[in-house]
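Quick one: structure tokens for this chain, please?
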Amino acid sequence: MEAGAHLSRLCSPISIFHDNCKVSPLSARVLNPTVVLRASSASAAVVKHSKDTTSSSNSPKTSSTRTNKGRLKRQTSGSRTGHFDGASDSRKLNSDISPHRAVSAVRLMRIQFGGAFADLLNEQGKGSGDNEMGYVERTLGFRTRDLDDRDLRLVTEIVGGTTRWKRYLDHLILSLCHDEKAFGSMEPLLLQILRIGFYEIIKLEMPPYAVVDENVKLAKAALRLGSGNMVNALLRKLVLLKESNSLPVPKVDGNDRQQARALATIHSHPVWMVRRWTNYLGVEEAIKLMTWNNTDPCFSIRANTGKGFTRADLVKELEMLKVPYELSQHLDDFVRLRTGMQVVIQAGLLKKGLCSVQDESAGFVVMVVDPKPGERIIDCCAAPGGKTLFMASRMNDQGNVCAIDVNEGRLRILKETAKLHGLDHVITTIHADLRALDNDDMKADKVLLDAPCSGLGVMSKRADLRWNRRLEDMEELTNLQNELLDSASTLVKPGGVLIYSTCSIDPEENEERISAFLLRHPEFRVDPVDKYVPCDFFTKEGFYSSNPVKHSVDGAFAARLLRSS
């Protein structure tokens, strides 16, 4: 489904970076309203969320969501105990503290306890920095100087990078602590400050003296003198090990499980993912995939031709903004950006409805649908609506795209965005659970089921997603996908087409779901997609599949299933 990458989840008017694939929220976290620096306890709970509540905010309200709730204890800069009285000293300015490090540490805390995601950019541009500084005030009891553009870029880099490399960074911290018990009981904020310092030294290769000095200052101001001393000792030890090329590295040997654990640490992924990928892909390809997931993502922008804004117009805007770009080799409306996304956002191109952030892999899914003027198309799990909008833009103001979703709030945003894009006369919405929909009078030429999925194909953009997935989620997801496929199939008129897509690279969510569906529904057959996508994306079974390593786009899958007349 569509999740994309979007970056911030509720950007107005649409989630711009998480709009390419609907990632199921099976492992969302919920933040205690009291902002905290220390989690004194944690317990598991089960809550219900819609498909748009999680990481990518994209999956139906159909699956239970595990969440860790902690009793969160706020420390003030004075007594270091008790709850923070925001009215007393929330405006206290500490100009000695690096603003990007303070914001990064607090954001990482919020990610840990479920109140934030690993990406900072949104359509508000600099406004996001203002919001983040507000969290710093409420959490640490002081504010730093305001974030400038460089600080915003550093926050994005540090938060995303520290989240991606968390397992490896923790391995280094534990190795230097020499005390597993002390590491396990470390205050969350102190651990985040250490992760930031380790990441800056190991991955960003910042000047060590500056990294040590600034992170020690932050630890002393936000926690206590002893915390600063610990940060100082561990960072200095790390610098010495790095300079002598003697950082501790796990050995990849032993049985399959031991090798997987070592690879999981080196490449900072969950062990279950590593084992799954080595089984499906082999060790070499699994390592390539993990390497891709750990690189800075490249984003794509789609020109909104439905509003008369062409790719040539978009290129002119980018050149005036001095943002480097590459034209998509396969999709006429798309442009790739490696840098400069913040500039595009601040220029207001997204707010004006002139373009959308959408990965090319999602664009290919729309190509597989092949919307035509005059057709009736149903998008079954539509929110936040990236594919809905793209399909509507290709229908020359003729026909209808009916967007169904269980999340009423997301549908409202989709409607607002459709109006902004000049497509509201083509798009209609229905608030419903697809599986309980009264569809006696609803039949369509084409039905798209962009299903809630694990999101295993979008992990380069979704730094936090790998840590929010569990092996147990996969069975729950595949059961949900089966149910949704069965329901979606009833909406296809005789001779019509059902398109099933995910933003996953996992065969269990893709090819295996199609095989199981065809056994249950012999009235459908595979309609090969070679007429709609380049041959490099066409599988031997007749499906569309994008591979992040091979194609340099998000991983995605789509199948066309033709209903007999």
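The first strand starts at residue 38 and ends at 48.
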